Amino acid sequence: MDGPTATAYTISAVLLVVEYGLKIWAIGTVPENRRPGASSAWLLLILFIPVLGFPLYFLIGSKVVAGRRHDIQRRANQLLADHADTLPDLPQIQPEEDLASIVRMNRRLTGLSCVSGSCDGVYPGTADFFAAMAAAVDEARDFVFVEFYIVAWDESTDVLFAALERAAGRGVEVRLLLDQLGSRKYPGRRQLGARMEAAGITWHYMMPLNLWRGQWQRPDLRNHRKLLVVDGRVGFVGSHNLIDPAYGSEKNARMGRAWSDVSVQVSGDVVQQVSAVFITDWFTETGENLSLDRDRYLPDQPDLVPGGAAHAMQLVPSGPGFPTEPNWRQFVSLIHMARERVAITSPYFVPDEALLAAITSAVYRGVRVELFVGEEADQFLVGHAQRSYYQVLLEAGVVIHLYPAPTVLHGKYLTVDDRVAVIGSSNMDFRSFALTYEVMLLAFGGDLVHRLQEVDEVYRAASRVLTLEEWSGRSWRQRYVDNVCRLTSALM
Fold this sequence. Notes:
The chain has helices spanning about 5-30, 35-50, 50-60, 65-85, 95-110, 125-140, 160-170, 190-200, 250-255, 270-285, 295, 325-335, 355-365, 380-385, 390-395, 430-435, 450-460, 470, 475-490; strands at about 115-125, 145-150, 175-180, 200-205, 220-225, 225-230, 235-240, 260, 265, 310-320, 340-345, 370-375, 400-405, 410, 415, 420-425, 435-445, 465. The chain is α/β, with parallel strands linked by helices. It folds into three domains: about 5-60; about 65-320, Endonuclease Chain A (Endonuclease, Chain A, 2-Layer Sandwich); about 325-490, Endonuclease, Chain A. It has a 16-stranded mixed β-sheet that branches. Helix 14 (about 380-385) packs across helix 19 (about 475-490). The longest helix is centred in the N-terminal third of the chain and has 27 residues, at about 5-30.
């Protein structure tokens, strides 16, 4: 064997040993603290396509933030805990023990207690939502906090930006956070920063990616929260992004595709919690600790006795900074708690084993479970992954309502019996449970459940029910694509 051939043989042998060594390492490392479905998906990719699997795993395989951002997030979480450490677990209401235990769990996982709050508006219409926020901003005297995953200054959002500009003009402090990647592809992005600065708005990107400035983190970890606070008195949370319902696309507008969302307006002590979430995110991105001026940014509100518009409310933030995945645990626990009915609205519904078991078990216990989803998804991989779960859901007896295309049903809320509602930014999928920063509002003791059920009635009237017979008749090609996408959706 000559020299070059021997060298090539040696290199090949070394690479083969390294490859199998890494594969053996992966088998014993990847499953650690990871759901079985996600572990299987990662191992399949690593074992069968190592040249792709290993780089992807080292880039995005961990669901926990590390380094500088981990340290900042830990300190930010402590701000949340410090904010609520003197408050009782519950306001002036004592729910049944099953719900009370979920409230205690949420506080243990997030540091935020259950407080009183009033639901002052439910907005399934985008124009009404933007107008309500603008009206609240026009009443601002001290400060306004704005935080959205997607932000665009367009004809639809101009009503709010004009109000923010007026507020800044009269001396109100206006701070705005937007996710850099979430907002990057929409019209007016290049001029957005300059326009906001000219309007007197102090703004920062969330999770910025700029190698020239040394700003780097995993691109798949994003801040997906949507909220607004005025003077610590009025708050908004929900699923709307700050953009035109057609998402700035002339093609979408021509074909009638629009995103349909639901958000709520709140007042009372719960607004402190919405403010606290913004303050932690502001601190994470800027290093500026607004909580040091607690009396200004976290003002006390009068206690409310739940009933009617008044509720017991608890804000539940989640994301990579919360490795216990509080929103996922909340969803699973609430569905297990159900006695009569559960209604789920989610644009991206990709449940893990525990959530799927909770839903199907509820049906087997005699609970009526309804799932409201769009007839067509706006994201290929997630849409097909979602479809892969319809068979088992239909076989169990879940009623699936398909909202007609081209509308994208984008609301994110859950109601259980006539007792409790949860609404906010979190989808029911792997990304929202672990990889994106989310915030959900838990409410009971008032009328929010019934107001969201009224929205369900509107969706129900417009939708068609998917039958098991129809779904079983789809082609093998559709089944194959759905199942492949289901596997890729678990990669986290």
